[in-house]
Amino acid sequence: MYHFPESICPAPLQARLQSQWQSWCEQAGKDEAAALEAQLQADASQPLLVARALLGSDFLLQQCARTPGLLSELLANDDLGLAMPDLSTLESDEDLERVLRFLRNRVITEAIWRDFAGQWDIPKVCARLTELAEICIQAALDWHWQKMVERHGEPRNREGQVQPMIVLGMGKLGARELNLSSDIDLIFAYPEPGQSGGDSSEIKPLENQAFFQRLGQRLIKSLDTVTADGFVFRVDMRLRPYGDSGPLVSHFAALEDYYQTQGREWERYAMIKARPVAFSSLPGGAQAAEELMELLRPFTYRRYIDFSVIEALREMKTLIQRQVRARGLTDNVKLGRGGIREVEFIAQAFQLIRGGREPDLRVRNILKVLPLLEQDGHLPLGAADQLRDAYLLLRRVEHGLQAEKDQQTQTIPAESERREQLAFALGYAGWESLEEELLLAQTVIEREFDQVIAPPEESDEISESDRWELLWSGCERDSDRDTWLAQLQGAGFVPAKNALEAVSALHGDRIVSALPVAGRQRLDQTMPLLLTAAAEVGEPLLALERVLPLLRSILRRSAYLVLINENPPVLQQLLRLCSASPWIADQLARHPVLLDEMLDQRRLLQPSTAQDIADELRQHMLRVDTDDLEAQMEALRHFKQGQSLRIAAQEVTGALPLMKVSDSLTWLAEAILQQSLSLAWQQVTEKHGMPNGASTDDMRFSIVAYGKLGGLELGYGSDLDIVFVHDVDGAGYTDGERTLDAQSFYTRLAQRLIHILQTRTLSGALYEVDTRLRPSGNSGLLVTSLAAFEKYQRESAWTWEHQALVRTRPVAGSGRLGQAFEALRTQLLCEARDEQKLRKEVVAMRNKMRAHLDKSNDRQFDLKHGTGGIVDIEFMVQYAALAWAQRAPSIVRYTDNIRILESLTEAGLMPAHQAAHLIDAYKAYRSEGHRLALQQLPGVVSGDQFEAERKTVTTTWQQMLG
C-alpha cells in the first residue's frame, strides 16, 4: 500500500492521513487503488493534492469511494463539467431524485477538490455551485410541470394564455454565491389566476393556485428529501410573503400588494439578491420573469436616498449578535464579529440607501458591489480590496468547515487537531498562520462595519440631550411650563415663549399623532438632536422656526428623519443654512430630496467650475431612462435645485463671493439649456428628421442669452431672456418620414425646449422663459434666421434693442453659429452712431422705466430702479458701448457690466477712478440684492443706505448723459 511522504503534512496529521487513504483503498477496491497509487508515484505534485482532500473532507472520501474512478478523474482533469440531466431517459420521480443526487454529490466533491487543490478560487466555486442549483431546480420544475400538465392540463389565465411558474432564488443563490452546504431560499410565483384544463375527459382541472401549489410541493420534495443517496439542496421557503403561514405560491398581483402594503425592512434587504433562477419552459416564461423583477424593484429600491435601512440593518445585526452570544457562536466566521454577514451588511446598506438613485449599485454579487462603492466614494480608497480579500478568506474557511462532513456549519472547531486539518486542507503551514490571517481579516471588516452600521458611541453630552428629550416629551404640560421656558431661555431661544409655542404646536399637531410607531420614534429621536444643535447656532429661535416647516414636510417620509439622526453634521449645517436664509429653508421644505445634497459637507461647500457643472449634469442624466421624458424633466429639476442649494450654501457661508455666485448660477443655467436642447433635438428629430446640413454635432441652431443670463448676472429666481437663431435655408425640408420645412422644424424645436423648461412637474418649473426680446417681440417669429436677425437689427431695431444687444451672447447650441452671432454682434455694436441722438434716446428710455418701476420714496431706496441705482449704471455702460465701440471694439468683447467698465478704462475712454467707483457701487448693490433675495425680501433698502454710492453714480450720470 502507498505511503505518503512524511514531509507532505505536519506530523500530528500523518497517522490520520494514512488511515483515510487506507479507508479509501478498502472501499474503492484493489484495482482502482493500484491504478491511483501508480498516478501518485508518477507525478510528485499529486500526493499533496490527495492528502489535502482526504484530510480536509470525509465527504469527499466517501463520494470518491462510492463512485469508481472519480478520484482519478479529478487528478487527471481540470474540470469535469456540468450538464443538464436528460429527462427523457427517466421513468419515475425516483429516477429523477437519484439522478439529481448523483449530480449534486459529484459537483460538490469536485468543488471541494478544486478549492483544496487551489485550482478554483472562491468565486469560481460559488459560480459552479450556483449553476448546479439552477440546473437541479430547472430539471425538477420541467419534470413535474410535464407530469402535472398530463394530469391537469396547462394552467391558463382568463384570456386563455398559459401561465408559467417563476422560481425566485434569494440570498446566496440569487447572488450566485452559494457555498458548499447552503440552503436555497426560494419564492414561487405565477402571473395571473385562472384554471388549468384540456380537451381530454381524463384531465382533472385545477384552479391555478392549487396547480402551482402542488407543483411547488413536488419540486421541493425532489430537492429536499433525504434518500439513500442523500439530498440535493435543503429548500427554505420562509422568505415568501407571510413566511410559513403564507401560501406556498402567489400570483403577481398578490405579491405586489403584499410588498406595497406590508413589506418589511428585512424583506427589502432580502430582495436585493432576488433573481429568477428557473421558470416553466414556455413562450413568455422569460418575459414573465422580467415582469416580476420589475414589479418588485420599487419595493427594494426607493427613489430617494433612504437612510432608514441603517436602523433596520442595525436592529437585524443586534438580534444576530444576541443569538451568537446566546448560542456560543463567537468563533462563527459568518455571524460572529468581523464575519461574512458584516461584509454583506456593509454592501447592502449602501445598496438599499442609494440604489434607488444609483442604478449601478443594483447588482447582487457582493464582489461586484464593493468596487462600485469605493468608486462612488461611499467607501474609503483601498477599502474595497481589503474587504474583498477578507471576505474571500472567510468564505474559503467557511467552505473548508462545510467540506469536512457536508454539514451546514460556519463555526471553527475547538479541537486543535481539527483546526490543523482545516489549515492544512486550505494550504497553510499550520493553524497559527491561518488564525493570524483570520484575525486580520476580521479586524478589517469590523472597522468598516462600524463606520457604516454600528451604533455611534454615546457622547459626553448625553445628559444635555436627555434634558431636551424631556422638554420635547413634556412640552404641552402646563405644570412644567416655567421649567421649559427657563431651559429655552438659558440655551439662547429668545423669546423663549415663542420657541416653546413652536415646539408644542408640532408636538400636538394631528399629523404627529397620526404617525405610525416607527415614524413617531424617529421624530422623538430627531427633536432633542434638533434642539441641541439649534442652541449652538447664532440665532437659535430663528433657526428653529425656519427648520420646522421642513420637519413637517418630511414627517410622512421618515427616512429623511433617519438621515438627519444618522448624520449630525447634516443637522448642524441644515440649521446654519436655514438660519442664514429663509430661501434655503423654503427650498428644502418644498423639496426635501435636497437634503441628500447635504450629506457630503466638503462637496456642498466646494465651488464648481462651468465644466464641473456640465460634467456632473451629464453624469446625472446618464442614470435616467432616455425614453422617459417625464423622468428626464424631473432629473433636470432635481439637478437644478441641488446645484442652486449648493451655490446658496456657498454664498451664505462665504465660500463663494458675489460675482462667483452669479457666475455659478449662470453656468448652471447654461448647462441645463444645453442638456434641455439636446433632449428637445432628440425628440423632434426622431419624429421629423433633420434639416439639410444639420447634425447632432451642429444643429445650425443657437440659443442667444440676453439680460442677466447674457451678462452673467443671474440670481436665484431669475427668468431666462433668450432668443433663438438658425442659419438653414428656410426653403429646405427635413429628411424624416414626417417632413417639415426648416422654419417650422426650428420653431417646433424651440417650442419643445420651452416646454421642457417651463412645464410644472411635481418639482416645479426649471426656468421661466422670456422670448420677447426677439426681433419684433411677441409679434415676430419665435426663431429667426441669422440673416433676418441682422436685417432687423440694422433696419428696424430701436435703440433700447441695441442696448440689450450689449448683454447678449450665445449660450447653447451650434458652436459655429454661436461664433457667427458673436461676430455679427460686434459689427452691430461697432456701427457709427450719432452720440447726441443716442444720449437723448437712452435718457428717455431710462426716465420711462423709472416712472413705471421705481419703488423708491422718502423712506426707502430701490436698489435696481432708484436714482443712482443698478439700472443707471447699466444704462451708462450700454451708452458707452454703443457710443464708443467704433473707436475701441475691445469694449464690447465682454457682456458683463464690470468687465465692460474695466475695458473702458483700458481703452482710455473712462477715468480709472470713475470706473472703479461705478464697479464698487455696482458690487455693493448686487451684494445687498443677493442678500435680500436669500432672505426673501424685496430689493429695497432704507433711504439712508448707500448714500455715497448713489451720489457717485448720479454724478457720473450727469457727466455722461446730462
UniProtKB/TrEMBL annotation:
Its cofactor is Mg(2+). Involved in the regulation of glutamine synthetase GlnA, a key enzyme in the process to assimilate ammonia. When cellular nitrogen levels are high, the C-terminal adenylyl transferase (AT) inactivates GlnA by covalent transfer of an adenylyl group from ATP to specific tyrosine residue of GlnA, thus reducing its activity. Conversely, when nitrogen levels are low, the N-terminal adenylyl removase (AR) activates GlnA by removing the adenylyl group by phosphorolysis, increasing its activity. It catalyses: [glutamine synthetase]-L-tyrosine + ATP = [glutamine synthetase]-O(4)-(5'-adenylyl)-L-tyrosine + diphosphate; [glutamine synthetase]-O(4)-(5'-adenylyl)-L-tyrosine + phosphate = [glutamine synthetase]-L-tyrosine + ADP. Keywords: ATP-binding, Magnesium, Multifunctional enzyme, Nucleotide-binding, Nucleotidyltransferase, Transferase. The keyword Glycoprotein does not apply. SUPFAM superfamilies: Nucleotidyltransferase, Nucleotidyltransferase substrate binding subunit/domain. GO terms for biological process: regulation of glutamine family amino acid metabolic process. Residues 314-452, 845-935 form the PII-uridylyltransferase/Glutamine-synthetase adenylyltransferase domain. Residues 465-962 are annotated as: Adenylyl transferase. Pfam families: GlnD_UR_UTase (PF08335), GlnE (PF03710). Residues 56-279, 571-823 form the Glutamate-ammonia ligase adenylyltransferase repeated domain. Its EC number is 2.7.7.89, 2.7.7.42. GO terms for molecular function: [glutamate-ammonia-ligase] adenylyltransferase activity; [glutamine synthetase]-adenylyl-L-tyrosine phosphorylase activity; ATP binding; magnesium ion binding. Belongs to the GlnE family. It comes from Microbulbifer agarilyticus. This is Bifunctional glutamine synthetase adenylyltransferase/adenylyl-removing enzyme.
